[in-house]
Specification:
Two copies of one chain form a homodimer. Chain A has 395 residues and is of the alpha+beta class. Helices cover 34% and strands 27% of the residues of chain A. In chain A, the strands form two sheets. In chain A, strands 1, 2, 3, 4, 5, 6, 7 and 8 form an eight-stranded mixed sheet that branches. Chain A has a six-stranded mixed sheet with strand order 12-11-10-13-9-14. Chain A starts with 8 loop residues before the first strand and ends with a helix.
């Protein structure tokens, strides 16, 4: 199960010379025939050509794709009409390799913004990837989508559905939003489950919410973010709502694993903090507060400095635009209580709190005592390296 | 006019020993009698005791105050019931000095969060300030409200209304939100204009919108932010709508001056960038986009590095949650065009753009070509010093 393959798919990674530094930069996934597919994309109003094209492909094909083609090193974003022409050419070439229609191909790009794709290199890379396709090519594919990541990030899950098993293999790239040029987050999952497109779409959206939609490095969303799944129908059949829940759980678990890897891999990230919001009136309110904490520069620099400055946490909570009773707020780091009922907790110990914040991973829990809803978010530190990477790049 | 005095008021600054480092830390403004007053406060849901008390005072007194008392070094925030008791004690002592009721006093505090006010020192400081009150005490007052600011920030304006003149003297503190412990922004204006409380309130809200409500260092709002104005009615009388517009213009100009000083004084700030949004459908949409650019860590690190990375600017524009046509976007740095119709502008010159970004102050203009509304915002860089100051403080 853990050899990074998935029945019904072939994968490849190839070097087209698009990235400045040598390495794989074109990835290809090809299914044996058109299969159920679903994807979620960036919510940025400025969308790269491949995102617009892929959204149309999923719609036109009614959720049946046969191939995914990815390039790293150039985002094909803010490239005008030529950008769409180039994205279409990538789809057409991948379709010819897979033996399907161009609207059955998902295209994704990541890298520098505002420069035309070097199509000679992209074309050569796709040709090479087509020649390299194989059942065991997922590791190469997972490398070909990387930009400034320190290494590939993959995960595998199996889940029993009825009497059969389904396998899910996934990979991601992006190093959060930390890397230069906005580090698009691209994630791809292949599964052999047999599941209709509409159900797959529901499973993906549900699984993305507490995972890839609940991580924040700096709160920016790129022009290219894409999370896609294809299901070959060679394994367990998803028939009932209970079956779909099992598949969704396995997918959520896989995406959670990938999201943690994404956060931890970011250059300049030393601490991954799980923000837990409890006692909110609604899930939406809880998520708004979690996001505000996770993106507050003052909280993030406190995380970087290992400073248990709970005033900044309360301040971020109060800035979320959510009605709340400040005099009810409790704040914990792991199991140590810093704030009780909006004031410093009687047993609060600065040294103990500081020791917790030295860990590479810990939790920050805020209880609003205002309801039964909650949310979870992954946050990280705002460090000197973040500034160096993003300020000094290109200059 | 520019000797920092204002007919009808006495001012003082005194040293109570509340701040760790020696210096003035208690400020007092006393009017000859109850006068028209208005204030705007933090929109954070977690409000410090002095903010809650001052909001009540303005309401109870129907906008007629006679004194302002401020301490620096301790924010009296997240201090529970004792915090409100202490804020009331500050108001009572100032009222006794001014000879007015306690609900005719505005109280403001700034400094560390979550620690009880050292009331013996606060009381001693207010006593000393009362003894030091004088017509020429504004400079001392402007120093007494500082925390980590590098120096006092004051401004004076005079405006002719009818045949008479009105003077406005103002001061601010905060160093943006850059300094440790969230650097409350406190600002106070005294004027001798004769204007009813309701008109003064309208003038203040209108003047605050494009000035103190349009600056962003990191997008966080403290628990204590306060901007207040008192009008002694010793100078020009504001009778007509035209008169009020003149006063509002002068106040806007004064606050704009103070806001620029606030941004430029921030430790870790090397560049103050005026974000101009044009061609928006509504002012609200324009402000949302300006705020998003001004708080984007990727834009702010690009400003720090002097990197004309226009992809990050477009990305921030797209992340503002405002409907727009990406293919219409124009981007300028000063008068140099980087982006035309969503793509790199034909005449774009990286070296020229980088030279513009070396300046201490420059403008970044985004034209959406989608309407006639606009907004202006002041932004700054996210620098290594910001991280150092906020991460390494206390640790």
């Amino acid at each position: 199960v853990s050899d990074l393959s998935c029945p019904g798919f072939r994968f490849a990674g190839a070097a087209g010379g698009i990235k400045k530094k040598a390495g794989l930069d074109v990835g290809l996934i090809v299914a044996d025939q058109p299969v159920a597919a679903a994807a979620v994309f960036t919510q940025n109003r400025v969308k790269a050509a491949p995102v617009l094209l892929s959204q149309k492909a999923l719609k036109d094909s009614r959720g049946k794709l046969q191939a995914v083609v990815v390039n790293a090193g150039n985002a094909n974003a803010c490239t005008g009409k030529q950008g769409m022409i180039d994205a279409r050419a990538m789809a057409a070439q991948a379709a010819s390799i897979a033996g399907c229609r161009a609207d059955q191909v998902l295209v994704a790009s990541t890298g520098v913004i505002g420069q035309p794709l070097p199509m000679d290199r992209v074309t050569a890379g796709i040709t090479a990837a087509g020649a390299a396709l194989g059942e065991h090519g997922f590791a190469a594919f997972s490398q070909a989508i990387l930009t400034t990541d320190r290494g590939p990030k993959t995960a595998v899950r199996t889940v029993k559905i009825g009497r059969a098993e389904a396998t899910l293999v996934g990979c991601t790239k992006g190093a959060g939003m930390i890397a230069p040029n906005m580090a698009t987050t691209l994630s791809f999952v292949a599964t052999d489950a047999s599941v209709p497109p509409a159900s797959l779409d529901r499973a993906l959206r549900r699984a993305a919410l507490p995972t890839f939609n609940a991580i924040a490095v700096d709160g920016d969303t790129s022009t290219n973010d894409t999370l896609a799944i294809l299901a070959s129908a060679r394994g367990a059949k998803v028939s009932t709502a209970k079956d779909l829940a099992k598949l969704t759980d396995a997918l959520t678990d896989l995406l959670d694993d990938l999201a943690h890897q994404l956060m931890a891999d970011g250059e300049g990230v030393h601490h991954v903090v799980t923000i837990e919001i409890r006692g909110a009136a609604t899930d939406k309110a809880a998520r708004a507060i979690a996001l505000r904490i996770a993106t507050s520069p003052l909280v993030k620099t406190a995380i970087a400095g290992g400073d248990p400055n709970w005033g900044r946490i309360l301040c971020a909570v109060g800035n979320a635009g959510v009605p709340l009773r400040p005099e009810r707020l409790d704040v914990f780091l792991d199991d140590h209580q810093l704030v009780a009922a909006g004031q410093v907790a009687p047993g609060h110990d600065e040294a103990r709190a500081a020791a917790i914040m030295k860990q590479a991973a810990y939790s920050m829990t805020i209880d609003l005592h205002g309801g039964r809803a909650g949310a979870r978010y992954l946050a990280c530190d705002l460090s000197h390296e973040y500034v160096s990477i993003n300020a000094d790049y290109r200059s």
